[in-house]
Amino acid sequence: MMPRVQKGILAGFSATVAVSILEAGNMLLGRMFDPFPGIVARMFGLSGNLAAGWAIHFVIGSLVLGPLFALLYTRLPTKTPETRGILFAVAAWVGMMLIITMMGDPRTFTGSAGFGTFGWMLITHMVFGGVLGNVYARLLAREKRAGFIHGAPAH
Q1: What is the DSSP string of 40-74?
Q2: What is residue 151's predicted lDDT score, i.e. its pLDDT?
Q3: Cα 11 to Cα 129: distance, rounded to the nearest angstrom
Q4: Residue 150 clears pLDDT 70, i.e. is over it
Q5: Nearest to 137 by CA among 78, 84, 76, 89
Q6: Residue 97 Cα distances to 38, 67, 82, 83, 92, angstroms
Q7: How many CB atoms are closer than 10 A to CB 86?
Q8: Local structure of residue 105 (DSSP, 8 states)
Q9: Phi-psi category of residue 33: left, alpha or beta, with phi > 0 → left and psi -120 to 50 → alpha
Q10: Does 6 score more than 60 pLDDT?
């Protein structure tokens, strides 16, 4: 049996990979929006260091948001795993926006994209949440199926 925090880490990693593919597309197709790894790097005082931004992005998505979602999963008010994930991710986006705008560098969103970057980050967070909820629910279902197969006594 896999602990729920471990399931959260796996789901968070999968969701982070999915969002990173979207972000890589943004970066390769002309940077329509400020790249999220660049924003993360600036938040941590590492302006211009995209590698550090990517690393921090994976750590937060996999080791912070994934386990936190696993711990809150049953308390989230929606019915489907995907909407639970989206609700959780939008709440994380709101928290991140508050941190960036209140305590971050005021120039964080003054790049060429401006307000579009806020929208892009909301969309990618919603994708993150949908994948997070789906993968987490699949891990729960897989464990439940395994329990039924191996859980019955052989008498």
Answers
A1: HHHHTT-TT-HHHHHHHHHHIIIIIIHHHHHHHGG
A2: 52
A3: 10
A4: no
A5: 84
A6: 15, 21, 22, 21, 9
A7: 22
A8: -
A9: beta
A10: yes
